[in-house]
Structures are given as C-alpha cells and as structure tokens.
Amino acid sequence: MTLLGRRIIVVGLAAALLGAGAAAICFSGLGGLVDQARERLGTVLLVGDLLVEPGEEVTLSASLRHGLRLEGVAGRRVQFVLGDTLLAEVRTDKNGDAAVQWKTPDKAGDSVVRVRLNAGDQPSTAVEDAELRVAARPKETKFAVVDLDKTLVASGFIHVLSGDAQPMPGAAAVLQRLARDQTIVYLTQRPDFLGAASKRWLLSNGFPPGPVLTSTAGLRPGEAGLRPGGAGTLMIGSGPYKHTRLAEMKRTFPNLVVGIGDKFSDAKVYAASGLRPILILHVDWSEDEPEDYEKLAANLAALPDSVQAVTNWSQIASILFEGAAFPKKDMEKRLIQVARDLRERGKD
Ligand SMILES: [Mg+2]
C-alpha cells in the first residue's frame, strides 16, 4: 500500500471517529483526501459476534452504515443466512438497523451467520457480506481472553489499517494449543467497522476461530448506560470498555481463566475481573534514557502482584503449558537496574 493509501485510511478512521462524536478534527486542506476516504468507506454492514449458551434465544443484529459519519441507511433488505438456509430477511429501520430473533442450536458450537444485502438492494459498489459468529458454549466452559493490537499484531495501528500487519512470532501456535481446551475470545477496543478486516487477518495468520468482540463507533441498540445519540464504546477508554465486556461475559460464564494484553489497563482489568493477567511489554532495551525504564517500572509497580510480565509469546507458552512464572516484580527489578546502570554510566 502506498503512503497516500495509508493516509486515506487514517483520514477515514479519523472521520468515522468524528461521526461518532469525537472531538472536532480539522480537515482543512485535506478535502481531496476526505473525498477519497468517503468513497473508500462506502456502505458497510456492521455486525457484532455473540457469546451465548446452547439453545439460547438471541438477537441477530446488523447495521447498514454509509460514509464518513457511518450514517444509517434505511429501507434496505438485509438477509441472515446460515449455510444454505435463509433465516430471515429484514428491512433496515431509519437508523440502518435490522434484527431478528433466533434460537441457537441445542448443541455447543459456533454458528457463522452470513449477513448480506438482498441483491436487488445493492448499491453500484456492492456492500461486502459480513460474518456474524454466534459462539454457543455451556456455562462451565473455560475462556482465554486475548487482545489484538500489540498482543497478536506485532506492528502498529497504521499497518493494521493498511492490511500489512504482522503477527507476533509464536502467537498463533500458542493460541491454537490453548484452544484445545479453552475458547479463545478476541476482545479489542477496535471499532466494529474494522471487525471484518480483523477477522480476515486472524484467519489468514493461522489463529483459532473465536468471537471477535469490538467496540462501536456510534451508539448501537442495547448499549445501556451510554448517552443516547452520543459516541459508542469506542470513546469510553480501553480499560472501562474491556471491564464492561468482561462483566457481561461473567454473568453467564464464570470461568474466564486467562487474559493476555499489552496495556497496563488490560492487565489491571483482567486482574480485577478474576482472570490470570499476562502483560506483554514492548521494551526497547537499547533505549538510553533511564527515565523511560523508570516510568515503565513505576507503571508495573501500580499493578496487582498477580500480573505476569513477559516480552514474547514463548514466555507466554511456558506460563500456560509448563507452569513457569514471570512475576511482574522481576521485570520491575530488571528495569530499575537498567536505569541505574545508565545513570552510573552517565556520571563517568
Ligand atoms: Mg493492545
């Protein structure tokens, strides 16, 4: 992807945030880019994966949105299809939303519902089908909760948006092994309009299937406690967002075993929600400012003692499968020692 292409996507994201009620973003001088971004965003079908019990009655919902502000598109026929069976066809309401009640199979397993527009309602640039995964699990199922960016994805957000994001070495193999006796839930604050791209990335990089829980760029039905007409869960901050989602999960599924993420807030929320917290730190050991190491150590010191601090997925494998421990205190000590050495060298 060209640099210009990346800029267009970033502008698109920023504009979508603006549509979601974010602080005003100045686009002066970016008119051409914004127009291209508008074209690129086009019309999208947004869905959210579900985690339920077998035999449960659920609401399958989708939202048809258009353009930079992700405005709802009314009066289009949305089809919910499972295998070769059309479960329902529902016209979008004034907000672009379409929903149908559906009873999940009595047997545990994943149903991947294809959500698509009726061919007769497709705009000139066809709207891509969306996949809505309904993961039905018995109450006693064990779950591993995993973050995406800088946890499974090695590179920064710009690479994620442009589609050339690389996975962290070993991450897929570790999750494949973990998936033998736990259900993997991908819990990210990425907004729902990146859901399809996230799923494609996980699949093409060999990660096990699992529900991908995203935040919403605009308010969606059923999101209690948020200001009507205001921003969705994208804007409430990663920590509070994940805390809310884990609390929802725990109401049905008490066995959330382990949480893996790269943010201090991830580790804090996992610990507070009763998961075993594993924190992946991205430490640049060639850094020569002692303050940077001291700041990391101070952030670690503020976390609960149960946090395991690692720098790669082979350490995570040894925690999960070999009973190894990487207490965050060890990492704190190492960081403080590196800072001390740098300060002493500075005095010479
Ligand atoms: Mg992350």
Write the layout of secondary structure elements.
Layout: H1 3-19, H2 31-41, E1 43-47, E2 50-52, E3 57-66, E4 71-72, E5 77-82, E6 85-91, E7 97-103, E8 109-117, E9 130-136, E10 143-146, H3 157-162, H4 171-178, E11 183-191, H5 195-204, E12 212-215, H6 238-252, E13 256-261, H7 264-272, E14 276-280, H8 290-301, E15 308-310, H9 313-322, H10 328-347
Parallel strand pairs: 2-9, 10-11, 10-13, 11-12, 13-14, 14-15
Antiparallel strand pairs: 1-3, 3-4, 3-7, 5-6, 5-8, 8-9
Helix pairs in contact: 1-2, 6-7, 8-10
Magnesium ion binds next to loops.
Keywords:
globular; alpha/beta; 10 helices; binds magnesium ion; five-stranded mixed beta sheet; 348 residues; six-stranded parallel beta sheet; Immunoglobulin-like; Rossmann fold; disordered N terminus; single chain
Describe this structure in words.
This protein is of the alpha/beta class. It folds into three domains: 1-41; 42-138, Immunoglobulin-like (Sandwich); 139-348, 3-Layer(aba) Sandwich (Rossmann fold). Helices cover 34% and strands 25% of the residues. It is built from ten helices and 15 strands. Strands 12-11-10-13-14-15 form a six-stranded parallel beta sheet, sandwiched between helices. It has a five-stranded mixed beta sheet with strand order 2-9-8-5-6, with no helix packed on it. Strands 1, 3, 4 and 7 form a four-stranded antiparallel beta sheet that branches. Helix 8 (290-301) runs antiparallel to helix 10. It is globular. The structure holds magnesium ion (MG). Magnesium ion (MG) binds next to loops.
